[in-house]
Amino acid sequence: MIYPDNAVDKLGFTDIKELIKSKCLSEPGKEMVAKIQPQTRFDQIDKFLRQAYEFKELLLNDAPLPVDHLYPIKPLAEKARVMGAFLAEEEFFSILLSLKTVFAIIRYFNERDGQYPNLEALFEHLPIEKQLVTAIEQVIDAKGKVKPNASPLLAEIIAGIAKTEQEARKRIDQVFRTAQQNGWTADGNLTIRDGRLCIPVLAENKRKVKGWIHDESATGQTAYIEPEEVFHLNNKVRDLEFDKRREIIRILTALTDELRPHIPLLLDYHNLLSKVDFVRAKALFAIDIDADMPELSKEASISLVNARHPLLLLNFKDSGHAVVPLNIAIDKEQRIIVVSGPNAGGKSVCMKTVGLLQLMAQAGLLIPADATSKIGIFRQVFADIGDDQSIESDLSTYSAHLSKMKHFSEHADAKTLVLIDEFGTGTDPLFGGPIAEAVLDVLNRKQVRGVVTTHYSNLKVFASNTEGLENASMLFDNAAMRPLYILQTGKPGSSYAFEIAQKIGLGQDILHVAKQKIGAQQKRVDTLLVDLEREKKTIHEAQVAIAQKEKKLAQLQEENERLQAYLEENKRSILNKAKEQASDIIRNANRLVENTIAGIKESQADKEKTRALRKQLGAELDRHTAEPKKAQHAVKQNQAETVDIQVGDWVKIVSTGNEAQVISVAKNNLVLALGELRTVQKRGDVVRINKKTPQSRGRQSHQARLMDEVSNFRPEVDVRGMRTEAALYEIEKYLDRAVMMGFPSLKIVHGKGDGILRKFIRDYLRKYSEITRMEDEHPDRGGEGITYAYFE
Question: What GO biological process terms are annotated to this protein in UniProt (predicted)?
Fold first, then answer.
């Protein structure tokens, strides 16, 4: 698929694999990374990309995946497959830890059923065989050693060893003390020689201690003797050790036999651990390079949005520099991009970025580009990068380029991505340019896709006049004489050879002679390219400015819509409040009329009393309507004044009586601030006020007074010390308000005394049908001195 073989190295794909390999926790995971190759099947690439993307999301947004132990199971399973073979203690311990990791991973994804469907497919239908873990744990302890009670015989042998060693130690201690008392021993304590516990004895006394001499000191003055009394005990310990080893081997062999039928399942577990480690490494690398999953297409096309070269990105992370993003599109209409521009301007990086990201995506790796990027599938990737001259093959630089061009022209097709750096170089430009143009024409007619970098003017002209080819240039800052590393398609770029030479400091006389030697036509073309680039930069800056203005306009439009929505809501709120005020006025008026009618009935239609009541009713109604008329009159009187209302003035809204500050004036409309709220009012609906002078109590509206009374009213009246008539009058006022406001009871504090006031009050309250019962306060809180009247 990739030609030549070293193209993967020159594009940087081998370096990418090494970086991913460093993220692996196990050797099988590293082996899988080493086998990464670009794929051509859509479903396979899509699966690999989605697995990497889901693992990346898991690492960033979910609880850590339990991957503490990823020991390879496959070689141990293959060893256990052989009849008669057995696994060692440490090998069983590795399998045990790996099995626990496998089961923890399966449980992790089972708890998140459906959240990571592509990762769950890694172990689909893979069972949790707990009996394997149970069988191993019955034999192997938490330190990876065979348990002393793994079998009854082993427990008996270990107990026998301990007992015999204790007896041997006791015997040798006795002999050692006796030898010390007799002065036969050398300086020092008991020591081990040839695996035996020995007594250090002076050479002249070695015949005095019966036993076997195992060693002597370098000077020959000390002999190390194993006493005769403990020799047979040590032999017994040695025999028991052999028995212990044989029993352990028998136990491990039996355990291996028990494990052998499950070898296929163990291999499946091994594959799961390897794949999890492999995908995890890909996801970790994707996080390092801020990679995302592009949209995958079956077409042979590329559309990269804000793409960055991953190796360049990692190098720049340490230095704090930013990588200029690349935006490029290759499709069936715009098949080959011919990139030109100054040296060190980023042409080769642009081409390598396209090639490397294509290989990464087809290998199932996330790429450092926006998720809106679109990656197609190519069956072949051909690359001609760098110098491939070979002394062994007798190839010059240009010959090596030509051999690649031969292969490209013969084997490339519409599903081939071709990458050619410095197309046509390596020989006389007079001949290299036409040959390169002819090869480009052949590739174009074969519908090949690709990126070509060049300095040759004939290729720029050919690309501008040929369908399927598109010129592109790397932008250059003329003023600062530095490359911008931004790719712009639609026009070729100048090489800026003279400008760069001038910046480096090449002599003016040399530059003048050089300019005289180039043709007039070439000079005009180069000048035209420079002018075009300057104009392109101006247009780009204008586009940026327009985009900023459009963004600001969108923000203003959004703010205007929010304000409009707020005004509509404020309008509804004011209407609802006005309706509530109207309802309150009607209820008050109805109650006033009913009280008047009741008074007329009580006076039995006495003319004087009736006349007085009617007069009182008229006065109350006049009072209810006086303030709106007064407000309207005030509006008319102050219309001249409202004309002069300015930003910062304080005004009073006539309809509600609320005070607000003017924050904006637009023709006949005022935008007012009511604390955190905003409202719009007509000039004629407000009256300017002096905020420094607080409103007097007498200027408050009737509705405001009612609201104050309601908010401050408490259903409790204290009539202690009052005469009976005054007390009953005060109680009646509180009683009416408590009933009207819907309170459940009225508390009357009258004191105890002789109980006369309490009796008159209770007799008076019994006349009201609204009162259902009366009770005394709790003895601890006033008792008979307080009466509670409860309403229906």
Answer: mismatch repair; negative regulation of DNA recombination; rescue of stalled ribosome
φ, ψ dihedrals at 391, nearest 5° = -70, -40
pLDDT at 517: 67
CA nearest to 328, candidates 345, 349, 343, 306:
306
Mean pLDDT of each 10-residue bin along the chain, 792 residues long: 89 95 93 94 94 94 88 92 91 94 91 90 84 92 92 93 88 86 84 83 87 86 86 86 93 94 93 94 95 94 94 84 90 92 83 95 96 95 75 57 88 94 72 86 94 87 89 78 80 70 75 68 58 71 86 84 77 72 68 65 60 64 56 49 72 80 81 74 83 45 51 79 84 80 83 84 84 84 86 74
Binding site annotation covers 234?
A: no
Identity (one letter) of the amino acid at 372?
T
Residue 255 identity: L
Backbone angles phi, psi at 452, to 5 degrees: -125, 135
Tokens of 250: 């028998």
341 is in an annotated binding site: yes
Q: Is 490 left (phi over 0), alpha (psi -120 to 50) or beta?
A: left
CA 464 and chain centroid, separation:
45
Which one, of 145, 103, 97, lies nearest residue 126 by Cα?
A: 103
Q: How far apart are CA 74 and CA 68, in angstroms?
A: 18
Q: In 10 A of CB 478, how many CB atoms?
A: 14
Identify any residues that bridge with 786 across adjacent strands, giving them in sequence order: 749
Distance separating alpha carbons of residues 116 and 113, to the nearest angstrom: 7
Which sign does the torsion angle of CA 172, 177, 182, 188 carry? positive
pTM: 0.61
Residue 451 and residue 330 in contact, taking contact as beta carbons nearer than 8 Å: yes
Q: How wide is the angle at C-alpha 16 spanned by C-alphas 10 and 21, nearest 5°?
A: 135
Give the per-residue pLDDT at 655. Answer: 73
Strand 677-682 to 222-227 pairing: unpaired
Spatial separation of the C-alpha atoms in residues 730 and 427, rounded to whole Å? 117
State the Cα–Cα distance between residues 414 and 541, nearest whole angstrom.
37
Say if residue 345 carries a ligand binding annotation: yes
Q: Determine the 3-state secondary structure of 660 from DSSP.
A: strand
CB atoms under 10 Å from CB of 47, counted, come to: 15
Q: DSSP H helical segments within 603-684, as ranges?
A: 607-637, 639-643
CA atoms of 148 and 138, how far apart (whole Å)? 11
Position 390 scores a pLDDT of 44
Amino acid at 84: G
**Please, what are the domains in the chain?**
302-517 (3.40.50.300), 638-698 (2.30.30.30), 713-791 (3.30.1370.110)
Burial class (CB in 10 A: 0-12, 13-18, 19+), 114: exposed
Report whether 64 belongs to an annotated binding site: no
Residues counted in the chain: 792
Written as one string, the DSSP assignment of 67-114 is -S-----HHHHHHHHSTT----HHHHHHHHHHHHHHHHHHHHHHTTTT
| Per-residue tokens: 704 | 């405001």
Element (H, E) at 338: strand 336-340
Residue 675 annotated as binding site: no
Among residues 331, 325, 329, which one has the least CA distance to residue 299? 331
Instruction: Please report which residue ranges of 497-519 form alpha helices under DSSP H.
Output: 497-504, 508-517
Helix (H, G, I), strand (E, B) or coil at 376: coil
Rounded-to-integer distance, Cα 734 and Cα 731, Å: 5
d(CA 665, CA 684): 13
Contacts of 760 (CB under 8 A, 6+ apart): 724, 727, 728
Confirm whether residue 34 is marked as ligand binding.
no
Pairwise CA distance, residues 639 & 375, whole Å? 70
Does 148 sit behind a cis peptide bond, omega within 30 degrees of 0 on the bond before it? no
Predicted confidence at residue 487, as pLDDT, reads 87
Is 711 one of the annotated binding-site residues?
Answer: no
* CB-side neighbour CA atoms (13 Å) of 575: 6
